[in-house]
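In practice, a research group might receive sequence data for several interacting partners and want a quick structural hypothesis before committing to experiments. The following worked case mirrors that situation: the sequences arrive first, and a predicted assembly follows.
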Amino acid sequence: MKPYQSLSQIRSDLNARKTCAVELTQLYLDRIQKYNDQLNCFISVHPEQAFAAARNADQCIRQGISKPLLGIPIAHKDLFCTKGLPTTCGSKMLQNFVSPYDSTVVSNIRNAGAITLGKTNMDEFAMGSSNETSYFGVVANPWDTSRSPGGSSGGSASAVAAGLVPLATGSDTGGSIRQPCGFCGTTGLKPTYGRVSRFGMIAFASSLDQGGPIANSAADCATLLQAMEGYDPRDSTSANVAATNCGDLNRKLKIGLPTHLFKDLDGEIAQNLDTAKAELTYCGHEFVEIELPHSDVASATYYVISGAEASANLSRYDGVRYGHRAESPVDLNDLYRRSRSEGFGAEVKRRILTGTFALSVGYFDAYYLKAQKVRRLIRQDFLDAFESVDLIFTPVTPTTAFELGSLTDNPVEMYQQDLYTIPASLAGLPALSLPCGFKDGLPVNFQLIGRHFDEATILSAAQQYQGRTSWHESHPTIFESSDS
Amino acid sequence: MATWEPVIGIEVHVQLDTNSKIFSSTPVAFGREPNESANLVDLAMPGSLPVLNEAAVHKAIKFGLAIDAEIAAVCRFDRKNYFYPDLPKGYQISQLEEPIVGKGRLEVLLDSGETLDVGITRAHLEEDAGKSVHDRFQASSGIDLNRAGTPLLEIVTEPDLRSPSQAAACFRQLHALVTCLEICDGNLQEGSMRCDANISVRPAGQEAFGERTEIKNLNSFRFVESALEYEIDRQIHSLENGQQVARETRLYDSQRHETRPMRGKELSDDYRYFPDPDLLPVRISEELVAKIRATLPELPKQKLDRFLSDYQIPMEAAVRLVQDNHAGRYFESAVGDGAAPTLVCNWMLGDIAAMLNKLNTDFAHIEFASNELVTLLARIEDRTISSKIAKNVFSKAYGTGRTVDEIINSEGLVQITDSDKLEEIIKGVLEANPSQVAQFKAGKPQVAGYLVGQTMRETKGKADPKQVNQILQELLSL
Amino acid sequence: MDTQTIEKLLTLSQIQLEEADRDALAKELDKILAFIEDMQSIDTENILPLAHPVDIDQPMREDKAVLEINRTVFQDVAPNVQDGYYIVPKVITAR
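A structural hypothesis for the assembly, expressed as tokens:
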């Protein structure tokens, strides 16, 4: 059976009793069973819990109870703690970790009525842009299984693109939602830092990490965001702000275009973006040239800050209270060193060591402190730009999905994959990645960045755009089969 | 030979008396089963996050105001990174660059009643670590994280102290202050306050400080004094023998009365402090500071002045009552119920102190209510019992829950004040001791003392010796 | 990056590597450092560091204690516990 294209279709079928939650769960679990071997999007799938939740949802539906995601199947990136289910963070370190509690995001989504099908694959501890650092194997891009789905939320993006699930959660530290959505041609939002609670979302870099929705459209992202967001007293960095309220866009926007970022862009990708610009112009919006003068050092700044924070965040994995523990340690240091060395993969170690370096005596000022100062300048660039524009339009990725394995030996080149997504991360701004075409059969996305806590404008503009285009409805044909 | 001057500064970790931990809602509890009082945050479960307890902040501000310190308008928390099994996150949340309490002054009351002005460099908030248990398991240690996350205020003094007794007095003063402010229970045995001392010596008259050592984890006033005495001697001895003092951390062994370097600190001292990204800047408004200022109790120095002028008690006694907040409260309660201040004071610092000492406890845990002391003093005053019997009554009443009056009545301890009855008893004593009576009459008046003693024995102490003596003299002069 | 620095970073972060992997790591870290050096070209004089992207203050929690004894659940995921304690090789170095 074919997957649904949108939440509104699922909702209307549920309301018309053409389907029920159990049937939906069956449909998507069947698709997962059929295609996950090829794609490896899921680290774990939980039919028993899913059917129990689905039966419960059907009962609610029969009783006339209405909830925003009632009966809708969803998958969670495997860094959101889910009580009683494995939560691995893509790492050998947490291979056997069954979370004793639910993250706020997971419990919010469950309270909204959604049904958790499973946990999606990801780069280890969310460190990576290709999903190749996962201990549980690489994820394939559904448009071309020899290519990377991007990372770190590659499992979630690939699963949504292939129709294995209509919605998925992701997390974005430097582009981990937007870049894989770009590679897989799905829509994904990194919310403003502080909009979505980080409680129970396993930390990579605390001042950058933000959970967000991945779905088939901006409208579906908005629905999922509304279920995820909200002030959480258990996360000190959670912001007490009004809920996201997007409706029809009844005003003309000024959209900033940092033309200097398009300079070295691949010609065909640039053409796709031009078409999207034309569409937005046609809607009545005006493009204004802006400058983000410090964006070319954003990646360097990001790797210092995220590495430093990660080096401390990952110190808790010591083989004592949970996680991988080395066999028969001879002493305490042996326990620490072997547990950590065996439990962490190469990329995680590189980041920890880089971060440790940036914080150590003699280098702190030149690296960590310097990066924090540059971070202020980068944020100021955006604040200045937003004095005169409502949104900023940029590419998401410098290339379309690359071949698996092509960048694994070159960490620095891999880091540069995120050059368009990192600036908004450092500035804590909301940013949406959405499809606008193809190059050689591979999706091309563009990015809309908004003011702090102004997800509504981004999502409304994107809904307007997607109302006029159908790129977001394209799905890789090999997964469209209906022979089940 | 040169004379040496010690230069000492202390750092005191004060466990703030809050209901819950500094970054989690787990109760701060002693005596629970291992790891029962440790939740997600205390165990550093993946994904868990800290949320600041306002009471810890308020108590730190209260301390700052009591020492006239600057209270930071904005303070922040840093991560101090190192691996240790009782430190579950692999870092301790502390404050390095922007502590909540800045420079202040502490007036230290010395036993003499003089005061010593000691600079407070800073005081900052941090979380306590858990505990390692070494003797319970073979070849292993057990980790109990119940204490992890208990709020601490680390108070750092300037190197203004010049002798071990000054250092001990300073620690005692901080103890008096934090208990008076009710921000800490002051229980030294349970580790509610722990003192580290930095110590160096220099030739008298020299301005530059010598190389210093740090002695860690001194948990009694006496240990502060004795550890420093030992360490000063050790440093002087080294210097006089042409050796250097090595900058190091040492531990005090009270059994052997010596300090020893801490064994192999394998890990580097590079703590890589940086602002904790899970916590935001803490803004402290002037309104909040004013609100807390209004709750400040009478501080020890003010209390001392009042005790001296209102109650006319000796300086040394007043100092002791002020240093121990619980003793001060006990004293005021007894005096408030009408007892004579000097008598209350004498009892508290005499018999009661001796009893507490014997039981190894203190006024915080006294098991003899102040109104019982008032009754006891009233019974002496109205001559129901003698002072001597009173001591007896006290020791029978202490810790038993029996009242003074009940003991006096049920054990027949009421003093014999009826002179006819006393005369009868004394006559009996005189008849039984004819030779002593003869000696007295032959001009040996000191024998009267013996006869008074015999009478007291006969009455089981229930007579007033003064009255006995008076009647005796009358009878003998007949 | 010299051997001594690598050695220190490994010690501080409690990670161990085979001799051969260490050289490879040093080369990688050198490349990463070169990449990071980009940042040094920016003039940051009189610029304050930015630790959080959104300007909000630390909220404070009321001092209410909640005792939930979940030791069994928490220790279910622990690799080695005994009598309620987490077990580690004998701690011999003092804090």
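Before designing any experiment, note the following. Chain A touches chain B through 45 residues (CB under 8 Å). The mean pLDDT of chain A is 96.
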